[in-house]
Amino acid sequence: SSNAPSGTADNSKNAGSSAQTEKVYNVGSDASYAPFEYVNDKKQVVGFDVDVMNAIAKAEGFKVKYNNTAWDGIFLTLDQNTNDMLISAITITDQRKQKMDFSDPYFEATQMIAYKKGTNLTTLNALKGHTVAVQNGTTGDDIVSKAFGKANSDIKRFDAMPLALQELANGGVDAAVGDNGVVVNYVKNNGAGKFDTAVDPNFPKENYGIAVKKGNTALLNKINDGIKKIKSDGELDKIYEKWFGK
Ligand code: ARG
């Protein structure tokens, strides 16, 4: 490390690390979304997305710092420059693409319904006339809003997904709709025997991407390059196995 020219700001900040200074990017994530991102007992942000991001950073030679960022307003943090990128189980949508840029997909998902055992609320149609909890501003919210009408009071919107699922557990709603990985994880850990889950055959396939500020092509290219590497060297498969393998 003493090979680096002394007296530069970067050198002093990275004293003791490698001679080549690595850039530290701020990564925003709504860490209430197990198993994709959540805070463990050691108060660290961990999960599938965190492992993916760390692997990309390693492959591309940059460092990351995770900022637990509320979902409500998370996209604005790119323009506010408080986050350089977002990894938060974010579905790539045409609407969002107008406001920010997305990496290539790194994960495939779909919406899933959780409902009280025996109630058979397995499709959007069956859900009509029933109360449904969603996380505000998510693709789950979109899908139910479109089917029910946005202002329908049967839709109960929560700022975080655990609150929506908790409402189902409390009996405050008949069902909850959210990303399949999160719903499956919740039912497994909290609702075994109490809830059933279903994917409406009409629910579209969704792809998760990493978001950057619109026009930040330099960073986007690095991220996409990293994604390509971890897809081809098997690292992404390993991470998938770790979090979703039986
Ligand atoms: N995939 C869904 C969407 O993009 C939900 C993502 C919510 N993520 C989170 N970390 N709370 O709308």
Helices and strands in order:
Blueprint: H1 9-13, E1 24-29, E2 32-33, E3 37-39, E4 45-46, H2 48-60, E5 63-68, H3 76-79, E6 85-86, H4 94-97, E7 100-102, E8 107-109, E9 111-116, H5 124-127, E10 132-135, H6 139-148, E11 155-158, H7 161-170, E12 175-179, H8 180-190, E13 195-198, E14 206-208, E15 211-213, H9 217-232, H10 235-244
Parallel strand pairs: 1-5, 1-6, 10-11, 10-12
Antiparallel strand pairs: 2-3, 3-4, 6-15, 7-15, 8-14, 9-12, 9-13
The protein binds arginine.
Arginine binds at residues 30, 33, 37, 71, 88-91, 135, 138-139, 161, 179.
Keywords:
alpha/beta, 246 residues, D-Maltodextrin-Binding Protein, domain 2, five-stranded mixed beta sheet, binds arginine, single chain
What does this structure look like?
The protein has 246 residues and is α/β, with parallel strands linked by helices. It has 10 helices and 15 strands. The protein has 2 domains: 9-108 and 207-244, Periplasmic binding protein-like II (D-Maltodextrin-Binding Protein, domain 2), CATH 3.40.190; 111-198, D-Maltodextrin-Binding Protein, domain 2. The protein has helices at residues 9-13, 48-60, 76-79, 94-97, 124-127, 139-148, 161-170, 180-190, 217-232, 235-244; strands at 24-29, 32-33, 37-39, 45-46, 63-68, 85-86, 100-102, 107-109, 111-116, 132-135, 155-158, 175-179, 195-198, 206-208, 211-213. The chain has a 5-stranded mixed β-sheet with strand order 5-1-6-15-7. β10, α6 (139-148) and β11 form a beta-alpha-beta unit. The structure holds arginine.
